Amino acid sequence: MRWLTEERDACGVGFIVDPSGHLSHDTISQALRALVCMEHRGGCGSDSDSGDGAGILTAIPWKLLSDWAANESITLPDTESVGVGMLFLPANDDLRAQVKTEIAAYLDTTDYQLV
Fold it and tell me: CA geometry: angle at 19 spanning 63 and 79, to 5°?
C-alpha cells in the first residue's frame, strides 16, 4: 500500500463509526470533534475566502425527513428511491430564484423530483 503513504490530495481523513452500525448523536458529536482538530487549507492558506469542502458524511436522516415531509403534506417515495442533495445557492434573491427555476426545469426533463 505504498500509494496510500504517498497520497497528498487531502488535508486529512478521519473515520468515526460504530462497529455495530448503531446510529447515534454521539457518533456525530465525535466526528465533529475530530473535524475541528484537522487543519484545513481554507482556514490557513493564502486564500481566506474559499474553503476546502471539509465536513462530515452521514447516513440520510430518514426520520427527520419523514417528519418534515409529513409536516409539509409531502409523501416521500420508498427510501430506496430517494436521494438527498445539498446546493449552495446565490445570496442574491433574483439570481437565487433564477437558479431554482433552472434546476426545477432540468428536473422536469428527468425522472427526478424536487421537493
Answer: 25
Chain mean pLDDT for the chain? 80
Q: How far apart are CA 99 and CA 106, in angstroms?
A: 11
CA distances (Å), origin 4, targets 35, 38, 107? 21, 19, 39
CB 11 within 8 A of CB 41: yes
Give catalytic residues, as residue numbers: 11
Give dist(CA 115, CA 83) in Å, integer: 11
Global pTM? Answer: 0.52
Residues 64-92 have a mean pLDDT of 88
